[in-house]
Fold this sequence. Notes:
Blueprint: E1 2-3, H1 4-17, H2 22-37, H3 47-57, E2 67-71, E3 75-79, H4 85-103, E4 105-113, H5 124-128, E5 132-137, E6 158-164, E7 167-173, H6 180-189, E8 198-199, E9 205-206, H7 209-214, E10 216-217, H8 223-238, E11 263-270, H9 272-279, H10 281-294, E12 315-316, H11 320-333
Parallel strand pairs: 3-4
Antiparallel strand pairs: 1-12, 2-3, 4-11, 5-6, 5-11, 6-7, 8-9, 8-10
Amino acid sequence: MTTYAQALDFATNAFRAAGVAPAEASVAACALVGAQAWGLGSHGLIRVPQYLRRLTAGGTSLTGEITVTQDLGALALVDGHAGLGVVHMQHAAEMGVKLAKQFGVSAVAVKNSSHCGALAFFAWPALRANCAVLLLTNGPAVVPPPNGSKALMSTSPICVAVPTNSGAILVDMSTTAVARGKIAEYAARGEALPLGWALDESGQPTTDAQVALKGMLAPLGGAKGAALALGLEALTGGLIGPNLAKDVPDIFDEKMDGEAQGISHLIITLDAAAIANESGASNRLDDFVEAVAKSGGRVPGSTKTDPDEFEPQMVIEVAPAVRKQLDEWADRLQIAKLA
Length: 339
């Protein structure tokens, strides 16, 4: 049985042993263990070995340098210098809130970054400040364009978070039938995929998770999902860069661990408090949430605990295959194994 506190200590110690500065190691650990605590194993501890591989191979920088290359008031462009994407996203999310409180709205674009985990984790700085936020990122190409047969877009995750009096509406999803990390979970367990989730390299449907990781993912909603992914790729890889999805080294391919991913992120933040005071949005949002509940529906994100409020002794589930990888890294880094 592993607790949240034990997992957090392990991940923090692992990143520090790999050479990550203490503050950044803490941010990275919080993001990944937080996802695990939410039950998002696809973006949780399974990512720790991937990040450690890339850090030790040099594909992800240990310097932790973050530079604002353009400051246009409400719009900022940040260079992550190939460091940890989770650290960049936390920095950008906090910057976005500060600028939104000053200007009413802000956009923070991060270039030259890396994989950033679950976008929902980085919505919380905005939600705590009574701000609404839209978060986008790109990654390795795994989705073909509408009517295309070659992967050119990533899973193009998107997160929309809006604060309400009773909590938050928090939508975090990929634009594929399933997140790629979920495919990795099936691969780690040696389980077959449901038909319709993935395609092999030739574009044929597959239920083999290992084949799917080297192939493509089915877009959410067919052509419409592919078109949405294309638009989000234009806003991230195209507009911010430096890499389009087709040029991003794959985190699941160990042969590429020494190559910088060049991933981009975009965070747009609105001062929801200012809008609500003027338009009465607060009451409408409460009415909307209540109507969803009365219909028998579920408000996305309503069960997600604020990461600042996780109980240290809460038990989190760790798959045996993931624990085995973590134990191997503990031996390699000469740190205590995960309890």
